[in-house]
Write a structure and sequence with these properties.
Blueprint (H helix, E strand, L loop, with lengths): L12 E2 L29 E5 L5 H10 L7 H12 L7 E5 L4 E2 L10 H4 L1 H18 L3 E5 L1 H11 L2 H5 L6 H6 L4 E3 L5 E5 L10 H14 L1
Parallel strand pairs: 2-3, 2-5, 5-7
Antiparallel strand pairs: 1-4, 6-7
Length: about 210
């Protein structure tokens, strides 16, 4: 895996850190795998948005990685299992290849607006990894991918999702899936952290797609 894109020091985020690639949790803060499971393949790439505070990433060594109780990890594990995908086939990553400054993982993070050139660098980095790994599917989790990163990572999605602003509108129009020219499947997944709040029919539809590719 090539080095992460760097960026000059600023007040919003930091790139001068070393990922804990041997620990469970979302990359780039951790290694990109579930607790108790090592990645034997990267057939399914699951994209979150950004990792969280630098202090949180720094403390993962003492906690053995991101806790299994983290809502996204816990619920994503359930979704993947229901779809019949081996946990070892999954690589868990984030669109934004940096860690936040400050203490909050949930405050507004205007990196898309303030540092568009860094986001272009992140998208380019991910595209090179995808070309190398040749996954069966790239799974983009949540609305930030509809509004921002999905369109940046795969420019084809801008037309595919034209005028669509909500996750429900995407699913209602059957636009949650897109096939790239190289055969890679792309799925816009309802975010696992809020899985309980989504309509059952939409959740079943997402799991059906994943199960078919499994």
């Amino acid at each position: 895996m090539e080095s992460l894109p760097t960026y000059p020091q600023n007040d919003l985020f930091a790139t001068d850190f070393t990922p804990h690639t041997d620990l469970p949790g979302f990359f780039p803060g951790a290694g990109g795998f579930f607790h108790g499971v090592s990645n034997t393949t990267k057939r399914f790439l699951f994209f979150g948005t950004d990792f969280g505070p630098r202090a949180y990433q720094r403390d993962l060594r003492s906690t053995g990685g991101e806790p299994e109780s983290v809502a996204t990890l816990r619920q994503l594990r359930t979704i993947v299992s229901q779809a019949g995908i081996p946990l070892s086939d999954c690589f868990l990553t984030n669109a934004v290849l940096c860690v936040r400054r400050g203490d909050s993982a949930t405050d507004a993070f205007p990196i898309w607006r303030q540092y568009p050139e860094y986001m272009v660098a992140c998208a380019s980095w991910h595209r090179r990894q995808i070309a190398e790994q040749k996954p069966v599917a790239v799974v983009l989790m949540g609305r930030p991918h509809l509004n921002h990163f999905g369109r940046l990572l795969f420019p084809e999605l801008a037309q595919h999702w034209a005028r669509l602003k909500t996750m429900k509108s995407v699913y209602d129009q059957g636009k949650e899936v897109f096939s790239l020219a190289d055969g890679t499947n792309v799925l816009l997944l309802l975010h696992p952290s809020f899985w309980h709040a989504h309509p059952p029919a939409l959740k079943a539809k997402a799991i059906e797609h994943l199960s078919r590719w499994a």
